[in-house]
Design goal:
This protein is an all-beta fold and 118 residues long. It is built from no helices and 11 strands. The strands form 2 sheets. Strands 2, 4, 5, 6, 9, 10 and 11 form a 7-stranded mixed sheet that branches. A 4-stranded antiparallel sheet has the order 1-3-8-7, with no helix packed on it.
Length: 118
């Protein structure tokens, strides 16, 4: 059974920081690229960051570049996304995604909510 479980969301003040985490099970971790997406109410889901396997090459969207670092723990199958300098545009439901590198297979988590408010 494949599971992607997100955690680390919550309520923070503008300019604050959070550490999002995705725990993965049920797949060959090294065969998948891991990503974080987000979706705000009334908006389309958008890519935030990606880290490839097995090279570990990161990619960031322009909206978060310089404010987060995506990393992976290959022993425990965990993908983290510390994000700082949270802005008004950042509140959303953040999803973890696993996409097979060579074939059209992907999995999604249930999401973790990030709210920015003073």
């Amino acid at each position: 059974q494949v599971q992607l479980v997100e955690s680390g969301g919550g309520l923070v003040q503008p300019g604050g920081s959070l550490r999002l985490s995705c725990a993965v099970s049920g797949i060959n971790f090294s065969a998948y690229a891991m990503s974080w997406y987000r979706q705000a109410p009334g908006k389309e889901r958008e890519l935030v960051a990606t880290i490839t396997n097995p090279t570990g090459t990161p990619y960031y969207s322009d909206s978060v570049k310089g404010r987060c670092i995506i990393s992976r723990d290959v022993d425990n199958y965990i993908v983290d996304l510390p994000i700082g300098g949270l802005k008004i545009a950042d509140p959303a439901l953040y999803y973890c995604n696993a996409t097979e590198i060579l074939y059209p297979v992907e999995y999604w988590g249930q999401g973790t909510q990030v709210t920015v408010s003073s």
